[in-house]
Amino acid sequence: MADAEVEVLGLAGKIADQLRGLVNRGVLAPGMHLGQTQLADRFSTSRAPVREALKLLVAEGLVIHDPNRGFFVAEVFSSECRDLYRMRHLLESELLSTVEWPDESKLAELTALVEELRDILDSGDRSAWAIRHMDFHDAVFDLSPAKTIVAEVKRLWTLSDRYRSLLPPKPPSANKLTDEHHLLGALRQRDRARLLTVFSEGRSRVEKMLLDILEHRGL
Asked: Cα(11)–Cα(192) distance, rounded to whole angstroms?
C-alpha cells in the first residue's frame, strides 16, 4: 500500500471519529445531507479522506449512501431503536455478569469520572457529558475479559447514542445521585445483582423515553 493511500486512510479514520461524535450528539441531525466538498472544507482536507470516512460510517449504519443523491445521516425509527435496546439488554447483561471487580486504582479512576460527569451535568454542556458518559461505561465494560462481547456492546452503543441525542437536555443534578453513582457503588461493594439491576433500570428508562419521543413524532 502506497504511503499516500495509508495517509488518506489514517486521516479518514480521524474524520470518521469526529463525524461519529457529531451524529451521536445530534449536531448532524437524522436525514441531513453530508456534502463531501463542505466536509472537506470543514476538516481542511481533500475529498478523498472525507469520502473514505463516509464509507466507514455507512458500514457502521450511521450514514446511508444514495448513488444519485450522495451521503445522508441515517434516519431514526422506533423499530430500530427497540431492536438496538433489545440487543443491548441481552449482551450487556451477559457482559456485566463477567466483569472482574476493580481494584482501588481502577475504582479511583471510575470515581473521578463519575464526579466529572456530575460537574458537567450541572454546567449543562451536553456534548461534553455525552463523551464522558461513554468513557465511564467503556471503562466498566472493559472490566470484562469477554472482549468480543465488549466490542459488540460498544458498537451497539455507537448506534443507539444517536437516539439519545433526541432526549431533552438533562437538568442539573441538584446533588442527587446519578445512575453512574449507583453503578460505582455496586462495583465497590462487589454486588453483581445490584450492578445488573441498576444498569437494566437505567437502560429501560431511557428506552421508554426515546420510544415515547419517536411515537410522538410518528416514527
From this structure: 41
Q: Which has the closest alpha carbon to 157: 178, 173, 136, 177? A: 136
Query: Could you tell me if 121 and 172 are in contact, meaning their C-beta atoms sit under 8 angstroms apart?
Result: yes
Q: What is the mean pLDDT of residues 181-210?
A: 95
Q: What span, in angstroms and rounded, lies between the C-alpha atoms of 205 and 216?
A: 17
Taking CA atoms, 146 is separated from 60, 149, 152, 200, in Å, by 22, 6, 10, 19
Distance, in Å, from the CA atom of 27 to the CA atom of 29, rounded to the nearest integer, reads: 6
22's CB contacts (< 8 A; 6+ apart) are 28
CA 10 to CA 53: how far, in whole Å? 10
Residues of the chain with CATH 1.10.10.10: 3-73
Q: What dotted CATH number matches 3-73?
A: 1.10.10.10
Query: What's the pLDDT tens digit per position in 20-42?
Result: 988 888 888 899 999 999 999 99
Look up the pTM and report it.
0.82
CB 55 within 8 Å of CB 49: no
| Signed CA dihedral, 12, 18, 21, 22: sign only | negative
- Chain segment 131-184, per-residue pLDDT in tens: 888 899 999 999 999 999 999 999 999 889 889 888 887 655 545 668 899 999
SS3 64: strand
Cα–Cα distance, 124 to 167 (Å, whole number):
14
Architecture of domain 78-216: Up-down Bundle (1.20)
